[in-house]
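Morning F.,

Quick status update on the modeling queue. The single chain you submitted on Monday has been processed. Sequence for confirmation:
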Amino acid sequence: MSDYRRAYQPRGCYFFTVVAHERREILTEPQILDRMRNGFRRVMDRHPFQVDAIVILPDHLHCIWRLPEGDADFSLRRRLTKRTVATGLDAPTSRRGKKPGLATPILGAPYPRRT
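Structure tokens below.
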């Protein structure tokens, strides 16, 4: 089991990677890109943060976020953004050719983040 600590630093800068579920190459599809763009905006309206950098590849993305002064709740923003991206999308076909249910995740679990 991993033994790492999360640093919650107000005005902190956070790097993280998110992969598509089962490493499907779907993150550069127009519907998913629009969903990510809108999801980021919606979360930023309620819980401000700055996107210092983002790289979106077909099966994963890398982000660097900076939080506002006096705020260290990176996890809330990350969770809300992921939920917003996944909500309302039709589930893609799995690699095995089966049609998964709508509960199939779009995004996989994140790698440990670095501060």
